[in-house]
Design brief:
Elements: E1 5-18, E2 21-34, E3 38-42, H1 49-56, E4 65-74, E5 77-78, H2 84-90, E6 95-98, H3 102-105, H4 112-124, H5 128-141, H6 147-150, H7 160-172, E7 178-182, H8 190-207, E8 210-215, H9 218-224, E9 227-232, E10 235-241, H10 242-247, H11 252-259, E11 310-311, E12 317-318
Parallel strand pairs: 3-8, 3-9, 6-7, 7-8
Antiparallel strand pairs: 1-2, 1-4, 4-5, 9-10, 10-12, 11-12
Length: 327
């Protein structure tokens, strides 16, 4: 494995058994994450972005969910094979996650100090005084005013943006190698969104933490990410560098996503573009390209077979019948 790669996921499959059938939420996803980089994971709601990373953290509720196949190699070990006790040593320590809604992620009955100190004591093996000092230091680092006093507050005493800053401070308090940010700005207004994203980017560059940014906002991806993975219906359809994905998108779905973003250089009265149709129901999907009903470039083969992965370069892959092996 490349020395710069700190996480390598291969062939990840996570299914959910429901009364209506098997939901293939993640179906054969592969990607890697390098030290200090920001990797964007994009796609419409329901494409499997969050489930992919919850699977890596082994936070899938079982039942009904189950990791059916795949590996997630970190430090030469497959963390998908580790026990719950072993995963507790990894979560918050080597891999941390910022969830979508900070209000539901923080315990409303516990002071911020209690929630932060517990994590630091568990992973860093220090006493409560040292853990408290570390927690105050992290709150100051993320821009919480008067952190020595604010640390004694309850979550409801913070605004939405400040709660998200607390979540970032908690996630980074044990110096993780990887930070997974699951739509960290979805519940915030535009001004606060920009501040939070700038904070994550700044802390990543200063601390050397690799960031996995899960989002449906292509503007965030364009401004923050080094490489991009595009998902659709639980499967990877395209990946490449930021410049490649935005400068020369190959998959019709990626092209549609980028075309859907409003542009300042377009006439204000022009109708916004949208991809026809709706994302597919991922229960018992047929063995064909799941995007073909919405694709303006669909061919007969798209309706009967799923396309193989075509490697266009070391960094670039696309999964579409427009790009056959050898062409």
């Amino acid at each position: 494995m490349n020395n710069d790669i700190i996480l390598e996921v291969k062939g990840l499959k996570t299914y959910f058994n429901t009364d209506d059938g098997v939901v293939k939420a993640v179906d054969g996803v592969s990607y890697n994450l390098r030290k200090g980089e920001t990797l964007g994971l994009v796609g419409e709601s329901g494409s499997g972005k969050s489930v992919t990373n919850l699977s890596v953290m082994k936070l899938i509720p079982s039942p009904p969910g189950k990791i059916m196949a795949g590996t997630a190699m970190m430090d030469g070990e497959n963390i998908l094979e580790k026990s719950e006790a072993e995963m507790r040593k990894i979560r918050g320590n080597k891999i941390s996650m910022i969830f979508q809604d900070p209000m539901t992620s923080l315990n409303p009955f516990l002071r911020i100090a209690t929630q932060m100190i517990e994590t630091i004591v568990l992973h860093k093996k220090v006493d409560k005084a040292a853990a408290r000092a570390r927690a105050v230091e992290m709150l100051e680092l993320v821009g919480i005013p008067n952190p020595a006093e604010k640390i004694n507050n309850y979550p409801h005493q913070f605004s939405g943006g400040m709660r998200q800053r607390v979540m970032i401070a908690m996630a980074l308090s044990c110096d993780p190698e990887i930070l997974i940010a699951d739509e960290p700005t979805s519940a915030l207004d535009v001004t606060i969104q920009a501040q939070i994203l700038e904070l994550i980017q700044d802390l990543s560059s200063r601390l050397g933490t690799a960031v996995m940014m899960i989002t449906h906002d292509l503007g965030v991806v364009a401004g923050m990410c080094d490489r991009v993975v595009v998902m659709y219906a639980g499967q990877l359809v395209e990946k490449g560098t930021n410049v490649e994905i935005f400068g020369d998108p190959k998959h019709p779905y990626t092209q549609g996503l980028i075309k859907s973003v409003p542009r300042l250089d377009q006439p204000s009265q022009e109708r916004l573009f949208s991809i026809d149709g709706q994302p597919p129901n991922v229960i018992d999907l047929p063995e064909c390209c799941p995007f073909y009903p919405r694709c303006d470039k669909a061919m007969e083969v798209c309706k009967s077979k799923y396309p193989p992965v075509k490697a266009l370069s070391d960094e670039r892959e696309v999964r579409c019948w427009l790009f056959k092996e050898g062409e």
